[in-house]
């Protein structure tokens, strides 16, 4: 029987447009070790570990006439060197130059005739550093059967290149034969007879009613859309709601986790509350820098995906977490409030209400779970964002805790990692946040036309942190 995409996974392909690629990404910056770190070694490391991710050697085959959802098919011509690519900045390359390159790389849709992922090895960074930029389609990473590639190439201990070659034997990969048109149609008819309602939706998608079909898939894929039915009030309109173009801008901001903990200890709440207070302050400063007049009651509505446990899950077992979901929570960020402490209190109160209503997964438990690493969490967060109408929120803000120990790719230590979330239709900004080894890293992905001043917003993140640090009761 065909290995068919789920309704949710297929919907990401149906709604994708050239100006709205549906992939998540990350920008990992590593220190080059004395033993060296180059493209050939990264290629060998990825090649060795692809056997753990069979989906990364499969592409999507669409069924003629859209009579059924697409299927996963082994790529008989799989070429790992096509997916692991080499790039470089004019040495010594700055972070600003890296972020400009990242924006251009992530703006390009993935090739649908090949497995839906890419990894770029970017050399030439100042300070003898190397960047790994990943792109993975949302239909590929589901957090259960398939996780993000970065989770396999990063280790808790340095791995010498000789040790990489001595890992588990490199299994011989024999791709399955490609199904012909007749087989695809036969399987589609068989599946449709079992599920006649799906046949109607699939035919509608063939008639180019892709958006409504995908929304129906998303609405019936799980419990995520319950938030839609409980909210009737649309989000306030502001410059963040702009029709996205094909261009992107990106900026990364680093912060000290100890400083954010100090803010939490001072005012109460959680680190997540601090993160959202920082984002709120940054958006306020950015709007004011644009000359916008803010009423004290003005808000920006954020979609804040929250990892939750199933009702019958009483513990934090690995299986329990992976079988759970990410719910979309809508939080009104009080950008009109001039006092940073009052902004923080508003956010802490709103977040506490969401946690009480949902069985939220504790941050410490998420960090412990293999397969629920930040990169995978961001793909699940993007899925949650896709389950809601764009009229209900202005910006996506996803915060996922990462490990507080040093990780390595081979022998190269990971210094920083910035998440990159995709943009939804009519949302010009997506903010990904993660903590790692004592740092907190904000990834700001924006539309090039609507958010050309992303560096102003990046500077406002730092300003918002300083504002919270320096405020007394």
TrEMBL record:
Record bears the keyword Endoplasmic reticulum: no
Any matching Pfam family: WS_DGAT_cat
Pathway: Lipid metabolism; Glycerolipid metabolism; triacylglycerol biosynthesis
Enzyme Commission number(s) from the entry: 2.3.1.20
Organism in which the protein naturally occurs: Saccharomonospora glauca K62
Name listed for the protein in its UniProt record: Diacylglycerol O-acyltransferase
Every O-acyltransferase WSD1-like N-terminal domain range: 5-275
MF-aspect GO terms: diacylglycerol O-acyltransferase activity
Catalytic class of the enzyme: transferase
Any Gene Ontology CC annotation: plasma membrane
Superkingdom per UniProt: Bacteria
Keywords for this protein: Acyltransferase, Glycerol metabolism, Lipid biosynthesis, Lipid metabolism, Transferase
UniProt-listed GO biological process terms: biological process involved in interaction with host; glycerol metabolic process; response to hypoxia; response to nitric oxide; triglyceride biosynthetic process
Reactions this protein catalyses: an acyl-CoA + a 1,2-diacyl-sn-glycerol = a triacyl-sn-glycerol + CoA
Domain named O-acyltransferase WSD1 C-terminal: residues: 324-469
Family designation: Belongs to the long-chain O-acyltransferase family.
Record carries keyword Phosphoprotein: no
InterPro entries named in the record: Acyl_transf_WS/DGAT, O-acyltransferase_WSD1-like, O-acyltransferase_WSD1_C, O-acyltransferase_WSD1_N
